[in-house]
Amino acid sequence: MGVLLPDDGYVRMQVGLADEAGKALDTREAGHGLSVRTVQRDKTFCAQQIVFADGVRVEVSGDVYSGDFAMEQCGPVKGMVEHILEYLLANKRPGNIEPAPNTLRSLDPCAVADKAVKSVAAFRGARASELDEHRCAWTEKAVVFFGWSDDFGKDPAPFSLAGRETVEREIGEGTCSVSGKHVANGPNDIETATIHVRNPDIAAALWPLLPKA
After folding, report:
1. 203 burial level (CB within 10 Å; 0-12, 13-18, 19+)
2. Which element (helix H / strand E) includes 207?
3. Which domain of life is it from (predicted)?
4. What is the rounded CA–CA span in Å between residue 159 and residue 161?
5. Pairing between strand 175-186 and 189-197?
6. Which of 60, 57, 54, 48 lies closest to 20 in space, CA to CA?
7. Distance (Å, rounded) from C-alpha 50 to C-alpha 185?
């Protein structure tokens, strides 16, 4: 989920299973075997994890993805965490929060997308640079990340690209965000592959390289 701001600013919020526990900056008990940990916090990024009694971790993060400004993200992240806790503590806890067997969350975007990015002439000589475990960049003009969406296809409406439901949004002058639907773990928990790029042709090359949706 993203929020467009003035001056080409873009704030991204993500919710999904955490691969790593991370070092807790602070921890609080939420009841019924649940706890909340802040694992990252700076001027433009915040991540908190809801930890279940069995060790499963759901992470909520917010970051200023583009734009030359600082905006504290722990307030919005905390609000989303509280909403999730309210859902869980109202006896609506999902019976199964294991990812689908063909999940994207365990894949390396640098390795998976490198061939697709370099199939476009403008990036043929570009080198992949890992931003984090879910994001990879080939210069600032081509960034691929695997994540989650709670509003995929609601606005704008999706279209079909290389056999995959796709949405495209303009996020800045000459730059667009192209997201392809992967698997739905629930009505508001849809895995997506997203590209921030000046040339959307990369999406048509990348989608066939992903696990079958």
Report:
1. buried
2. none
3. Bacteria
4. 7
5. antiparallel
6. 57
7. 18
The pLDDT confidence band at residue 9, using thresholds 50, 70 and 90, is: low
Lowest mean pLDDT among 2-11, 68-77, 138-147, 162-171: 2-11
The 3-state secondary structure of 19-63, one letter per residue: CCCCCCCEEEEEECCEEEEEEEECCCEEEEEEECCCCCEEEEEEE
Structure tokens at 104: 């994207």
Displacement of CA 190 from its chain's centroid (Å): 10
CA-based end-to-end distance of the chain: 20
Q: Cα separation of 75 and 55, whole Å?
A: 25
* pLDDT per residue as tens digits for the range 83-118: 888 888 775 555 445 567 788 878 899 999 999 999
pTM of the model: 0.57
Q: Where are the domains of the chain?
A: 2-92, 109-209
Torsion angle (degrees, nearest 10) of CA 67, 131, 181, 183: -140
